């Protein structure tokens, strides 16, 4: 299932999935209060808050992340820039691996918390939110560093799909 040849850029679908998932994740990270209220009131037997948008968007992220992972495994990703220091390449690989873990773990822990009433899952979900925010900051800094410091095409590859 793994790609044999590395493409020179990302496909239109890969770029669209990247930015769609990014937008949905940011929506979830910054618009989570109604879900928190709904969860807290549900755990006490009361009603309040509206979880629907958060649940629907979380499920969409899960489905899109699965699609993106399948594309990554089938078609591959462009090679790392030759001029990139080995330590930064390793850091980028680690950041991407953690992103994929979070893209699956966040929705699954949210589902376990909401539908299973698992408070431990809710706590893990909250911790992962903070990790996601830090990781996004690191990812943005890395992309900007690639563009402005190392003068690579890493950022451009995710802005303009390979045709």
UniProtKB/TrEMBL annotation:
Gene Ontology terms, MF aspect: electron transfer activity; heme binding; metal ion binding
GO biological process: respiratory electron transport chain
Coiled-coil region list: none
Iron in keyword set: yes
Pfam families referenced in this protein's UniProt entry, alphabetically: Ni_hydr_CYTB
Family named by the database record: Belongs to the cytochrome b561 family.
Protein name (Swiss-Prot/TrEMBL): Cytochrome b
Organism of provenance: Devosia pacifica
Source taxonomy: Bacteria, Pseudomonadati, Pseudomonadota, Alphaproteobacteria, Hyphomicrobiales
């Amino acid at each position: 299932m793994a790609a044999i040849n590395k493409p020179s850029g990302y496909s239109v679908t890969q770029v669209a999935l990247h930015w769609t998932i990014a937008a949905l994740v940011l929506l979830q990270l910054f618009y989570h209060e109604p879900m928190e209220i709904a969860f807290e009131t549900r755990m006490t037997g009361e009603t309040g808050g509206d979880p629907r948008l958060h649940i629907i968007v979380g499920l969409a992220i899960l489905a899109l992340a699965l699609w993106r992972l399948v594309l990554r495994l089938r078609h591959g990703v462009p090679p790392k820039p030759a001029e990139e220091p080995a330590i930064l390449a390793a850091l980028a690989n680690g950041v991407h691996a953690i992103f994929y873990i979070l893209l699956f773990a966040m929705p699954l822990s949210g589902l376990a918390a909401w539908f299973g009433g698992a408070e431990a899952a809710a706590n893990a979900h909250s911790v992962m939110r903070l990790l996601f925010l830090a990781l996004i900051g690191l990812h943005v800094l890395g992309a900007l560093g690639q563009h402005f410091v190392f003068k690579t095409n890493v950022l451009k590859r995710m802005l303009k799909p390979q045709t």
